[in-house]
Amino acid sequence: MVLFIFIPLALFCVSCETFPTDQLIEDLTHSASEKRRKASYRLVDQGDQAVPPLLEAMEMGSDTLRYIGAQILGRIGSPHAEKMLLNLSHDKNLHVQKKAILALSKIHVPALIDTIEQILNTSPQPELRAAAAESIASFRDTSASESLVNALEDTAALVRQSAIASINKIWTNRSIQGVLRSMDDDDEKVRYIATQIAAIRRIETARSKLRDALYDSSPWIRIEAIRGILALSDTAAAEGLVDILKYGQGEEVTAAQEALRTLTGIEYVIE
After folding, report:
1. Structural domains present in the chain
2. Closest CA to 181 of 158, 148, 214
3. Which of 21, 243, 256, 261 gets the most CB atoms within 10 Å of its CB?
């Protein structure tokens, strides 16, 4: 006897529901944030097929649609979005411009790096220069290293923060000088990233800077300096490490104690 068991197809297709692209695009400007979020994810899932109708809608769309649309185009990464994103990089809305600049780095058109580099070098808006510095890193093109190093002198800390983070991804001989200079930056985040890079990359010429960083006002920078000193096996930093044992607290004291044990072979007791 043969038994035929019929199982509803729906049981095998929990996530097979399809959503009309036009409806999803309309939902991008819905008042409910959850509906906007789901529409964004579903359009990204549709991939290239969502690009033409999205581009058409964005032509005359609201600021919100252009902003979210630029983000979606970046996530899809379609080269067909190049023209729209280039136009949006000069949009009347600053937030749309910024999102478009970041999205340009994700569509993998190497020639675009010149456009983004120009924004970094000439834009009067710090937010856009910072976005350009961040975007450049995605290309991994060492030809942009010069602009990033120059951006470390930018008057806006936001730009310097993006530039130093990107320098670690596009590494050249000039990068080292940029990192060393940034370890003395007025901005704490810039100093933190630069000190972290010096530690990770074991920059030999950063030894004295790392010792100085043991006395930085930020405990997080001091911890990164300890890691760098340990990575470089810099026994000359012992005095500074002992000072952290005396005057530091929490994680930095533990890190200094371990570094001293490794570098000197002596167990320093915290009293």
Report:
1. 21-107 (1.25.10.10), 110-182 (1.25.10.10), 187-271 (1.25.10)
2. 148
3. 256
